[in-house]
């Protein structure tokens, strides 16, 4: 995936990715909702689970598409099914990645997808949002760090959201009281980074 | 109808409908009005699909002003506006205003035939600067 140009996977591989993602989100939905109940509105896990179940239900259609198109369609599906702000945020990430992945080397495509999330959320790094994992992850990918390290980078970055005060999103209403809890969207990014790395190591 | 349309987007269908009821009582049928609330499976939240439908329902060539409650309602409304696409998306605005008071003020302004910019500005006067 380091080189530029057309990126593609076999239908069975794409299907495996969708199913892995759905299984991991479903298995962790309660934890995500618990994190969100501390500083948000207690729906992040439920919302993401609904979105990924919809993706899994569409796995056959998604896997018949070229990879970039499958990413775009997955993003659109999340936008339409997740319900909370996470739908447009994760959906925009996938739609941009799908658009860029054949046009640019993977690290550049990933970086543009992260920028599109920042634009969608009118947010920046350091505000206790998923960007606090996505930017470090993007930098690690650009630096060519090996796959297993990427999950560690993501996980360390998510841990680093705990002491932050939220200044964007629902958690910002809590001000100082948002400190001491991990950002749920950041935790989801760690889970999904793990899914993709497992998939690349085992299914492709 | 040539008056600006009003769309109310809340996480709660009850809040959205109640706000719409108040607007109707103020301005009658003078402005196109639509509301939506609830996530795609009926819980608290917002749905891009329902927002697109509400914009279509309240569509006016003079434009549409959207009132939202919390963050996800705004993000999902922005997404819905992008789905509506050019050229109509340029005539849809999200008001930075409290949902109930903003909807009533915006609709009152709209009922007098004010342009979209004035409708939005009237609602946004309610927000602290």
Write a concise synopsis of the structure shown.
The complex is a heterodimer of chains A (204) and B (129). With 204 residues, chain A is mainly α.
**Can you tell me the overall shape of chain B?**
globular
**Distance linking N and C termini of chain A:** 11 Å
Please give the count of helices of chain A: 9
Q: Name the average pLDDT of chain A.
A: 94
Q: Unreliable stretches of chain A, pLDDT < 50, 5 or more residues?
A: none
Structure description:
The complex is a heterodimer of chains A (204) and B (129). By secondary structure, chain A is mainly alpha-helical. Chain A contains nine helices and no strands. Chain A has helices spanning 11-39, 44-57, 59-63, 67-81, 86-100, 106-121, 131-142, 147-159, 184-202. In chain A, helix 5 packs antiparallel against helix 6, helix 6 (106-121) runs antiparallel to helix 7 (131-142) and helix 7 packs parallel to helix 9. With 129 residues, chain B is α/β, with parallel strands linked by helices. In chain B, 47% of the residues lie in helices and 16% in strands. Chain B has five helices and four strands, in the order E-H-E-H-E-H-E-H-H. Chain B has helices at residues 13-27, 48-57, 71-84, 99-111, 116-124; strands at residues 5-10, 33-37, 64-68, 92-95. In chain B, helix 1 runs parallel beside helix 4, helix 2 (48-57) packs across helix 3 (71-84) and helix 4 (99-111) runs antiparallel to helix 5.
How is this fold's topology laid out?
The complex is a heterodimer of chains A (204) and B (129).
Chain A: H1 11-39, H2 44-57, H3 59-63, H4 67-81, H5 86-100, H6 106-121, H7 131-142, H8 147-159, H9 184-202
Chain B: E1 5-10, H1 13-27, E2 33-37, H2 48-57, E3 64-68, H3 71-84, E4 92-95, H4 99-111, H5 116-124
Parallel strand pairs in B: 1-2, 1-3, 3-4
Helix pairs in contact in B: 1-4, 2-3, 4-5
List keywords for this structure.
heterodimer; A: 204 residues; 68% helix; B: 129 residues; alpha/beta; four-stranded parallel beta sheet; 5 helices; 16% strand
